[in-house]
Hints:
95 residues; alpha+beta
Amino acid sequence: MYRKMPKFVVESDIDVRTFVRPFHDKQIVAECATIDEAYQYIKQYINDTIEVYHHFARHNICTREEVDEIIGTDKPVAINIVLGNFEDALYIKKV
């Protein structure tokens, strides 16, 4: 059976406060067929964090219109922070 290959990946560059840099490279957290799917994944990821951590979660996400300019640069699409626990920079990369 033919399976369509993903065109975009969502990468995470997480900094966990209780560890000394547990990951040395960005981690792939999602594979997506479209840029819109990747952007929606990041929005849901942030919403899930807010739901779990309520008042301790902070985030900053670019607009959908800005994503096309950001892809291929080293600039994150979003920053997801849980105060005292972790800071997560999220990127969309075209593959």
